[in-house]
Amino acid sequence: MSSWTLSDPLVRLLADLVAIPSVNPMGRGKSGPGYSEQDVAAYVAAYLRRHGVETTVSDVLAGRPNVTGFIDAGAEQTLLLEAHSDTVQAESMTIPPFTPELRDGRLYGRGACDTKGSLAAFLHGVCSLLDGGGRLRFNVIVLAAADEEYQFTGARHAVAHGLKADFGIVGEPTRLAIVRAHKGVTRWRIATRGVAAHSAYPERGENAIYAMAHVLGRLEEYGKTLRGSTPHPFLGSPSLSAGVIEGGQAVNVVPDRCTVEVDRRTLPGESAEEVLSAAGRALAGVPGWEFEPPHVTVGAMEVPEGSPLLRLLSGAIAGVCGEARVEAAQYATDAGLFNGAGIPSVVFGPGDIAQAHTSEEWIDLENLHTAAAIVRGLISRQ
Question: Are residues 244 and 359 in the same domain?
């Protein structure tokens, strides 16, 4: 259907969410209402309360809250539906990022695909069932989590403060497929130190950038070794990438410090401690480097093929779409944290990851409505 309008409640909900900027500052020192989840959290909390859902709002960082809605159905099991409320930056977009536009059956705007579409589908799927007098087969937790795009702080905070569920679904754009396994990620900085001097007399100093060159060469070799290691049957091999390098004060000063930021994609069973230890061994013999503590660590996850969650969600998808697709992904999500905390969780949602973070981000509205219908089918007591 290409004639969706804002009179449709789910389209209106998503348009409202997209119109509220919630850009993650990503450690860049930016602040203000547009660089916080606070306003979108207030909207989500009001929406849940308007539909009679018990709701709490809790800051995970200053002015950056999680929103948690809980429906007690008196059921034996509890289902977590989680989607993050932050987005990536919008400066590079070629369309107005926070003026949602409907065109050709799509809604355009920052976050429409990643991942306010999932958030809207979860909210609408649950609340439309409640409004219609439907009965729930599970107790349901709806969690809108902050800071997924940078440090996964919202999910980490929820787990640390006692989040409990029998299973969970993490909303991300999967084209309505179930992602039952994905890689994890550990990110940290490596620093080299030198001695500053005037560049006219470089022999009087020690150049930290030259020292880093030796580190980078060894990291490149180690990355090739990882790619050649025994692959996981669904996820392939682990990987390593040096993504950001910074060093020096001015071109006429011998630099006394240089840092490189490393992104290491992990497989199920690999811990951050093991990752750092192995990288340290790869740098053995290279002088003058030191590791900073990881600033991002999320474990890989893999839900067994015969798990009850996979069976339940597959059945709900098949009931709407005729069949369910099960896949693996190379990216990391909050599901890694939930699985690590003992909440078996898969990834599922409307939209295509190919549209995430793009200059003209959009989501297919038919896909969005199908996701909401799947959620209703999953949680409804027949």
Answer: no
Residues 231 and 156: their CA atoms lie apart, in Å, by: 28
**Domain housing 70:** 9-182+300-379
- Which structure tokens are listed for 197? 């001097």
CB-CB contact of 192 with 258 (8 Å): yes
Digit-coded pLDDT (tens) for 283-335: 999 999 999 999 999 999 999 999 999 999 999 999 999 999 999 999 999 99
**Annotation says 261 is catalytic:** no
Q: Considering 148, 270, 334, 364, which one is annotated as catalytic?
A: 148
From the candidates 8, 37, 82, 86, give the one annotated as an active-site residue.
86
What's the whole-model pTM score?
0.94
Distance CA 65, CA 74 (A): 28
The verdict on residue 117 lying in a domain is yes
Predicted local distance difference test score (pLDDT) of residue 90 = 95
HSE at residue 375, side-chain half, CA atoms within 13 A, is 35
Helix (H, G, I), strand (E, B) or coil at 125: helix
Q: Are 95 and 101 in contact (CB under 8 A)?
A: yes
* Residue 206 annotated to the active site: no
